[in-house]
Structures are given as C-alpha cells and as structure tokens.
Amino acid sequence: MSSDQVSLSVAAQSRPGNEMELAGEAAEIVSHLLGDRRSVFDPTVEVWTPTAAEELRARIEDDPIVGTSMGQWEKLDIQLNNAPREVVLLAAELVFLREVPILGIRPQTRRSHLDQVLAHLDDDLQLPSEILRSFDRPSDLGGFRAGQWYYSDMWLHLSWAATFVRYWNSLDEGTRETARSDPWALQQAMLDSGEDQPGMRNALQFLARPDTFEPIASATTKLHLRNGLSEWIGTVGGDDPVSVDRDLLTARGALAQEFEGEFGFWYEYIRELWDDTFYNEESDESSDPDEDTPRSRRYWLYSPGSQASEWKEFSSEGIMALGWDVGDLAQFPDRDSIRQALDVDETGASMKNDVLALWQFQNEIEPGDIIYAKKGRRLLVGRGEVTSSARYEPDRSSYRYVRTVEWTHDGEWENPENAAMKTLTDISHFPGYIDQLEELFAEDSEALQEPLRETLPAYTREDFLNEVFVTEDEYDRLASLLKRKKNIILSGPPGVGKTFAAKRLAYSIMGVKDTARTQMVQFHQSYSYEDFMMGYRPTEEGGFRLEKGPFYRFCEEARADDSKRPYFFIIDEINRGNISKIFGELLMLIEADKRGQELRLLYKDELFSIPSNLHIIGMMNTADRGLAVIDYALRRRFGFFPMHPAFETPGFADWRAEVNDPKFDGLVDVINRLNIDITNDLSLGQGFTVGHSYLTRPRSDNLDEHWIQSIVHDELIPLLGEYWFDEPDKYENWSEELRAVLR
Questions:
Q1: Cα separation of 258 and 255, whole Å?
Q2: Residue 573: left if φ>0, alpha if ψ -120 to 50, beta else—which one?
Q3: Which of 246, 273, 245, 214 shows the shortest CA–CA distance to 421?
Q4: In this predicted model, what pLDDT tens digit does every residue of 215-232 receive, in sequence order?
Q5: Contact 415, 303 (CB under 8 A)
Q6: In contact, 579 and 630? CB cutoff 8 Å
Q7: Which DSSP letter does residue 616 get?
Q8: pTM for the full predicted model
Q9: Which of 165, 262, 351, 584 is most buried as measured by Cβ atoms within 10 A of its Cβ?
Q10: Which parts of the sequence belong to the AAA+ ATPase domain (predicted)?
C-alpha cells in the first residue's frame, strides 16, 4: 500500500459518519456522471453527454437574463423553457448535487427547487427511493454552511458543471479511468475543464470523494484552515487548490493520530487549534461575565521537559515549569502578543501549541487544578495539585515560568490512553479519561481529597431579574415550572439568552453560584445513549471498555449529596438529538413522579434511578431549519417555556439608556421592524426573530462604533443571508436598512 493510500486510510477513519452518509446520497448520480452517463432520475435517458451539457450551458450562459426584477429560479424557468428531456434531467440532477451538501437549507426547499426544474418535463417523474430519502435528512446533518455568495451563484455553478461534463467526455477512457480511482486526478480534471468555480467544484469533489476532500465550499475558508493547521502539516504547499486540499488531508491524518474517533474541523477541540478568532468569539447568547464564580476544577496533562527530563528536579522542588522565555508572561494581554514575541524571525507562523501552552499556564490554570505529569505518550510519572499562581523567575537558568505544585504521586504508571504530544493539554472535557487516571493513582494511595472550596457568592431571584430580561411574573412561573416538573425546555430563536438564562435560573434556585452542581452537554445527530449514559468504547489493545457517560456520573454526584441540595443538568440543542435513542430507558425515569424508581441498565447489571434533586434544563433553537420534531413522549415529560426578543422590557430599556448612542437606538428600531417582517413571513415566523442578545454588553466592554458595525456586518447580515437565501431582493433591502444605521 502506498504512503498516499495509508494517509487516506488513516484520515478516512476520522471523518464524521454523517458527512460520509450525506455524500452517499449523491453517490449514484456521481457514479453515472463519471461512468455510463445515464440519468438516475430516468435511467432510460443519457444526460451526462457533451450535447446535453453544451445546450444547458448555452441556455444559461449565452443567453443570460440580467437585472433584479426576477429571482434566479424564475430566470432558470425561462431558460429551461422547451428544453429537451435530457437537458431538463441534467439540470435537475445538477441542482440536486449542488444543494445536497448545504448545511441549513430546509429539505422542503431543496425538494421545491428540484420539482421546479422537473416541472419542465411532459410527464410526472417518480423519483427513485434513494433520492427521496435524501429529503428526510435534517438540514443540519453534515455538509457545509453556504454563504449568500454560494446561493446567488447558481447560474455560474450550473454553467461550470456543464462545462466540466463536456470536458470529461472529451478525455480518453484511460484518463477517465485513472480519475475515477485517483481523487487527485479527478480534481485536476475539474480544474482543467475551464474557468474555475471553487464553490461548485469543492462541493462536487467532496461528493465524489468524501474520503479525501473536506465538505467546505469556500476556497478562502480552506486556505485559512490550512494555514492555521500548518504545525500539523510540516512542509506546507502552495496556495493553489491541489496543494491546499493535499495539506488538509495531511493535517487530518496527523490529527487522527492525536485524537481518537471521528472529528470535523469545526469540532471545538479541533477548531481551537487553527482558528485565531475562536477564543475571542462571543456566544450567540448573552455574554457571561461570571468573574466572581469559582470555576470547576480542571485537569491537565503536562510534560516536565522532553521525555520528562526535568521531572526529578521539579518533583523534588514541588513545582511545574515551562521552558520558553519571552519575558514575564503577565505583560502579554492576548495570545497574539505572545505569538509575536515567540516569532523573533517574523515568519508569521501561528505557533499555536506553543502560544496556547504559555497562555494557559499563565492565565487559565488555577490553584486546585490537577496536573498529571507524563513521559512521552504512554507513561505517567506523577500527579499533583496546583497551589500557586504563575510566576516568572528570571534567575533560573531555564524553565523560568513556574507554579508551585503539591505532587501527591511520584513513580511510573502506564497511561490508559495515548497522551497528546503537546507540552500542556487541558483534558477537563474528557471525564471518562479523568476517571481512569484518578482510579489509577487512587490504587496507590488513600482516597484523593477534594480541595476546600471558597465561599460561594450568593445568587437570588433579584439577581436573576437584574441580569435576565424577563418580568417578575415570568421568573416566578419559570422557577415554579422547573420545581414542579423537574424538567423544562427553554425554546426560542437565537440570541434570546437561553443559555444565559438557564445557568442563572439554576443559580437562583440554588441560592448560590455553584458551578459544581451544574453540568452542560450539547446534543447533535450523532449523539447516542453510549455518549450520554454509558457504553463500550474501543481500547488501544483492540478490545472494549465500558465507560460511564456525563449523565450517569452527574446523577451519582447528585445522589451522594444532600437530597435538599438541587443539581441542574443543562442540555443545549436538545432537539438536535434523537431523544428516544439518547435517553433509552431513562425516558421514564426522568418524570417527576418516577424519581427514585429503579430500572436495570442496558449495559450494566445494575439498578439505576434518577435522584429527586436533579433537574434537567433543555434549550431549543426554534430558528434551526433542521430541527427534529419534539415528540409527545418527550413533550409530556418537560415543561416548555418560550423565550422571545426582549427589546421592550424595562431591563433592556435601562441598557439602551446606558449605551446612549443614536446608532444603537436606530439599530434597535430597525430590528424591531425586521422582526415584524420575519414573523409575518410564512416560511419563517416568530421562531426566527432576532434576539436581544446580539445587542447586549460585549465581553470586551468596549461600546465603540466598531462594536455596532461588527453586529451589523458580521452577525445580522449573514443571518439574513441564511433566512432569505432564495429571496435575494428581500435580503438586500433589509441588509441596506441595517447598513444605513451606521451612516
């Protein structure tokens, strides 16, 4: 097997299953395109022919309909008028290929576009079952998020695809056969076919070879991603499409060696490696300046020098230290300033891992955190608890960045998992792994003691009302609903503060800001009972190990505490998951009157119950075009509390007065009118309105003109591009109204 094949095999194992399944929906069409030229919609007709392709291209490109008096689908209707059957079928299959990988487009919209093209046939065509199944897939399962540019370039995409079909048919059979088996030869054929249209080409090459190409339409995004992952690539190639895609495959292969299981480049723990803006982004909910809230203990893997070369010294001195030296880290306000200090040759390299290690050592590790010292990837040499803040010791000969650590263990243990290659790694988001490590060290000592927690700040009903834009009556109803039902769902469009409110609702009922009694997870289409409750996971040795999930562990924590102390399990995007599949037998146990009742678990010979002091708060984004329908079985077990934009509440009025900016006032007024139009739009409705959290206090607390400009250009206008991607005039009109506020 060649090195390219090995790399492809390793990378393919890491690709999200939902992306591979999505590409599978188009596999038969792509196979006929590259093979026997027959239509999948009507196998009696050859559609992938140079004649049909040239006629479709000429109808669209040689006779364009300019102007904005009609939309692009109306224009395509005119251009397909009286077209031969093979041309209509070709256009329909290209429309299907173009839209099947889009993330966020509603299945009914895709179907309506296809039906609009097929209406030019003289008969009612019955689509194959495998094509019809594609329209059952939720729109947020796999694929790429297309910008307005992708939606509006439909005529360019169809014209390019037709040109590629002509070129493909001009190649000799030997060349075509090579391209069918070699993804890079196929990509080169696409690039050689004529003037490039990266959006459509990237979509088509992903559908043809999802094992090789990423589901990313934008060439700019691919380049940004590649450059951000340069440290995982080694020698970076050029900026041409072939080099960028090869580098992305190399990066995926390297990451697959480091991170087990499937992943996408937008998974949080991957994105933080390449996206410089990741740490500066704000949530779509309100910012959460909980500076006075003791955060939960975090866990870190740490390398005391290469192959633990400094461990003997560090363990005896009771310290951990890092070996770079750019002066006192306290002087650097952000990661980029550290990167510039490290980059003495001004190469522009990202140095992400080095920068992240220094930043986290100085700013994120806190006293009480647990450090696991490692030697290479397979051995652990110690465990300890951080007892000091970071300090710079310039008199040390090396390793001048120092923290005091009470090392509780010194020895050698086999790491139950392959450790990350980085100097410092936050593993707090891997509780199963942490459990294994704590059990490993507990075997050699007395039970490990939790550190004494600081006095927790109080949090009352009045604090909630001061921070969350709801009325007193609404809060009383919400708190009463949660106490009575034990389970609630906060529903509403993005930006109404669901996450912000969920955490504070928990604090207000607890009476203190106790993060140890809250836990949050996020559901998605691939989330399962095994992720949520417990299930078997593969081991390095080729076997399987039963691992407990976050809900099981949190229930045990709540059960071990005083039954009068409430715990809150928060589920973001609850309706993105398959509820029956995730909860399994727990669906009965979560009912308020079933708390304490026991059932035997699926994977363990154990009777299990959900304690009465555990509450579940789910959040549901009503503007997600791919939402799963909440079925009756779940609906009757949860209380539902709708959240709406709160621009007219007294709390927001106070905030508006504090900002005291005419442009801000104008923006609020435009959004209020925009929300009326969204509510009255039959394809959208109230669940798509723009929430107030877009306009709440930024984390930087900098209320300058750039803040308002960023809200308009970087958040609101792109949002409208997704809402009205098929109504460009409405999108442009409202975008212009938003821009006018800034003048």
A1: 5
A2: left
A3: 273
A4: 999 888 899 899 888 888
A5: no
A6: yes
A7: E
A8: 0.54
A9: 165
A10: 484-644
